[in-house]
Amino acid sequence: MSKILALIPARGGSKRLKGKNTLPFLGKPLIAQSVEVAKACPLVTSVVVSTDTEDIAEVAREYGASVPFLRPSELSTDKASSLDVVLHAINFLEKQGENYDLLLLLQPTSPLRTVEDIALAIKQYKNKNADGVISVTECEHSPLWSNVLPENMQLDNFISDEVINRRSQDLPIYYRLNGAIYLYSVEELKRRESFFYSPNVYAYVMPNERSIDIDNKLDFDFAEFIASKNV
Predict the structure, then answer these.
(1) Is the pLDDT of residue 208 over 70?
(2) Are the C-beta atoms of 112 and 219 separated by less than 8 Å?
(3) Which of 28, 76, 83, 131 could form a disulfide with 188 if both were Cys (CB 3.0 to 4.6 A apart)?
(4) E-strand spans in the chain?
């Protein structure tokens, strides 16, 4: 059986929504949603939070996650990549004698993912004999109906002739990353140093109602509203 590390990255700084990782979400800190879902999945071996602040670490431990280190300052800015944070955690744990086969990255800003989502993503990984599985959701609106705007705001050629006279339901279905699940072979992740540049990475499709990625107060309020309907 594969050893799976669920890693939850949660830095203290947030420009658009201050302190979002510990804001009360249905009566619990936002990060608790991801910790509890990961711990509830029997396929997950360990749940670790990577953070740069002791207050987030304390909350994470309260809900059952391990916080074996505080993230170094160079990985605590908004310019630090998720990949750098992941590789730091993997390398730290390996030096402690903890080795894992799969990395399951769960961003705390996706609180509507379920235990079933995690389990199905892992199942897809195994069925496809994949290097990785990444969650996506159907685009709410076709990107073919969008474009950049010129400085004068003119809409000439904003939509191509090929698209303008077609009904929206006749357009191809597009999908977008939803940020909820990144599942990857630790060996391949260290080798490629990327979540994407492999032909052996597959999509796990999630519905829109579980794909809200919290970036601002409106996202937070909407996600909490949707979650309250399922309580």
Answers:
(1) yes
(2) no
(3) 131
(4) 4-9, 24-25, 28-29, 46-50, 102-105, 132-138, 175-185, 201-205
Model pLDDT for residues 75-112, shown as the tens digit of each residue: 887 777 889 999 999 999 999 999 999 999 999 999 99
Instruction: Please tell me the pTM assigned to this model.
Output: 0.93
d(CA 7, CA 34): 10
Distance of CA 217 to the CA centre of its chain: 18
Give the sheet arrangement for strand 175-185, strand by strand: 46-50, 4-9, 102-105, 175-185, 132-138, 201-205
pLDDT at position 87, please? 94
* 3-state class (DSSP) for residue 70: strand
CB 23 within 8 A of CB 53: no
The vertex-177 CA angle with 176 and 182, nearest 5°, equals 155
Tokens, residue 117: 């989502």
Beta strand 4-9 pairing with 46-50: parallel
| Whether 184 contacts 132, CB under 8 Å | yes
DSSP at 66: B
C-alpha closest to that of 54 among 108, 109, 88, 10? 10
CA distance 41 to 118: 7
Q: Both ends of the chain: CA-CA distance in Å?
A: 33
pLDDT tens figures, 25-80: 999 999 999 999 999 999 999 999 999 999 999 999 999 999 999 998 888 877 77
Q: Which residues touch 53 (CB under 8 Å, ≥6 apart)?
A: 11, 12, 70
pLDDT category of residue 231 using cuts at 50, 70 and 90: low
